[in-house]
Automatic annotation (TrEMBL):
GO terms of molecular function: acyltransferase activity, transferring groups other than amino-acyl groups
Lineage: Eukaryota, Metazoa, Ecdysozoa, Arthropoda, Hexapoda
Pfam families in UniProt: Acyl_transf_3 (PF01757)
Protein name: Acyltransferase 3 domain-containing protein
Keywords: Membrane, Transmembrane, Transmembrane helix
Gene source species: Parnassius mnemosyne
Domain Acyltransferase: 153-530
Length: 553
């Protein structure tokens, strides 16, 4: 047997026992748990063999005699020459993108001719003809002028939450490393808290979504107006999300499969097959319940939950818009209390672990992802907390609020304490000796609403002039562009990470500086692709949808 192969097998055996000691998971649990982050820590070997040979023949003849050492293996994936044929989804994508490109060229030429050649007033240009203009859409995207009543600090919060998610996925997506034990030891250390706590960044978006659905609606509609226009309320939300989501689903099902290749490209191929089969559950925003183990675009579980919560929100909004503050507060409080109570009961019944890297909990990780992490019931509390702060901002809109210095300091201390506690509480549960299901259930029930509550005060204080340097930092113009691109970046970024990682021809050596270097690359790539899709697809179709909805009213 080749000495290098013997060395690699012995090294793998050492790491396998190390994983068992560190996480209480044996090899079979790791291999059979598709939701387990340790599943990629098994020994994987990619070899090129003659087509007539079987895998057993190739390994026995070319490497070593399998039967002599009792070596067991699974034939995971077989690739053949030219095994990525062009399918109808590919031709559909090419044709559609060429057509949109043609519309953008024609629309841009029309607007440039109207403004620069005919010297006409830009406002007199036909809105339909200029809807696909790259010139006007780019100008709108890069126009950072302040609007009256805008919540400027939200740009910084949205951008930083997106950056935090990207950092977390930069670490978690590195499946193949030379030193998996070292990476896992670092991930459960206190030093990694700023990464492992990143899962609550998504709750920031849930909180902001609930806040904005009240803040934007309360200034425009009454209860009667909401009920009369409920179809427009839903259509506006669904159509606003559709262009980027549909574009990414089409790219996943088609062109992304052809941009590169590599020894682990089967990940991208599998993703393409999922999108070709289950695209409809993604576009209907039900993939967190339907085909939840075969999601087309990994990050869109959040979008499904957010859309479902928007569909439910009029149950409370109709009382909030009634004009009676007492009834509004009762409805909002009932929403928060009911959501937290229901989530708490559900969590205690199902006994989930508190995270995707959890000692002695390997077999439960997939259930945690499907039945807790992607469940509307368990992720709803931050949304309803956000609705409360949205109403609080609405009733104080345009008014001067006087808060005593001592009270302001106390509220800031409580807010920062809640944020710090929400970040830290998951750390003890990742340790080897942790075994307290009651605390696990309490953390799963109250960590996310606590984060939303702490964040709510930060927003309220910043809007009313009590944010100091924090408000200055969050309101910097620096955050405006990434905040506007955050939706497209969120939908696209993980797919781009999978493509880059699946193109690797060798494992990487895990180190924090190197992963942060990769994060910078992922961030730049995601931002560039998001910019292109936003200008060429999202903004034009959003304009068309707005024109259609305005005519319908």
């Amino acid at each position: 047997m080749d000495e290098d192969v013997i060395f690699k097998l012995k090294d793998y055996d050492y790491k396998r026992y190390g994983l068992k000691a560190l996480f209480g998971a044996d090899l079979n649990e790791i291999r059979s748990g598709p939701g387990n982050p340790l599943q990629f820590s098994v020994f994987r070997l990619a070899v090129c063999i003659p087509k007539p040979c079987t895998t057993q023949e190739a390994i026995s003849e070319l490497l070593f005699n399998i039967s002599s050492i009792g070596f067991q293996y699974e034939d995971d994936f077989c690739r053949l020459p030219n095994d990525k044929p062009w399918v109808p989804a590919d031709y559909t994508a090419i044709g559609l993108f060429f057509f949109i490109g043609f519309l953008c060229i024609m629309s841009t030429c029309y607007e440039i001719n109207h403004i620069f050649i005919l010297k006409s007033d830009p406002k007199s240009a036909n809105a339909l003809y200029r809807s696909f203009s790259v010139y006007s859409n780019t100008s709108r995207l890069l126009n950072f002028s302040t609007r009256p009543g805008a919540l400027e600090c939200l740009d910084g919060i949205r951008a930083l939450a997106m950056i935090w998610i990207l950092i977390g996925h930069s670490f978690s997506s590195q499946s193949f490393t030379y030193n998996p034990l070292e990476s896992l030891r670092w991930m459960i250390s206190l030093e990694a808290l700023w990464v492992t706590a990143g899962h609550i960044a998504v709750d920031t978006f849930f909180m902001l979504s609930g806040l904005l659905v009240v803040y934007t609606t309360a200034g425009k509609l009454t209860s009667v107006g909401l009920l009369k226009n409920i179809h427009f309320f839903y259509l506006n939300r669904l159509l606003r999300m559709f262009p980027v989501l549909a574009t990414t689903a089409l790219l996943e099902a088609s062109l992304f499969n052809h941009v590169s290749d590599g020894p682990v490209w089967d990940t991208v191929i599998s993703q393409a097959h999922r999108c070709r089969t289950f695209w409809w559950s993604t576009l209907l925003h039900i993939q967190n319940y339907v085909n939840s183990r075969n999601i087309c675009i990994g990050a869109t579980w959040y979008l499904a939950i957010d859309t479902q919560l928007h569909i439910l929100s009029p149950i409370i909004l109709v009382w909030v818009l009634s004009g009676n503050k007492g009834i509004a507060w009762i409805a909002l409080t009932a929403g928060v209390v009911t959501s937290i109570t229901a989530a708490t009961i559900y969590n205690f019944i199902n006994e989930f672990p508190t995270g995707m890297i959890s000692a002695m909990q390997g077999p439960k990780i997939l259930d945690y992802i499907v039945y807790y992490y992607m469940n509307t019931l368990t992720r709803a509390p931050p949304f309803f907390v956000g609705m409360m702060f949205g109403y609080l901002l609405h009733i104080w809109r345009g008014k001067r609020l006087e808060i005593a210095t001592a009270l302001n300091l106390i509220l800031w201390a409580l807010s920062l304490s809640l944020l710090a506690l929400a970040m830290y509480c998951i750390h003890p549960t990742m340790q080897i000796d942790w075994n307290n299901q009651t605390v696990d259930s309490l953390i799963n029930s109250f960590m996310r609403p606590a984060w939303a509550l702490g964040l709510g005060w930060v927003i309220f204080a910043c809007v009313h002039g009590y944010g100091g340097p924090i408000n200055w930092f969050l309101s910097l113009r620096l955050w405006k562009l990434p905040a506007r691109l955050s939706y497209a970046m969120y939908i696209l970024h993980f797919s781009l990470m999978v493509i880059v990682n699946s193109s690797s021809i060798a494992p990487i050596y895990f180190s924090v500086p190197y992963i942060m270097f990769l994060f910078c690359a992922y961030f730049a790539l995601s931002m560039i692709i998001a910019l292109i899709i936003t200008i060429f697809i999202d903004m034009p179709f959003s304009t068309l949808f707005k024109m259609l909805l305005d005519k319908g009213r």
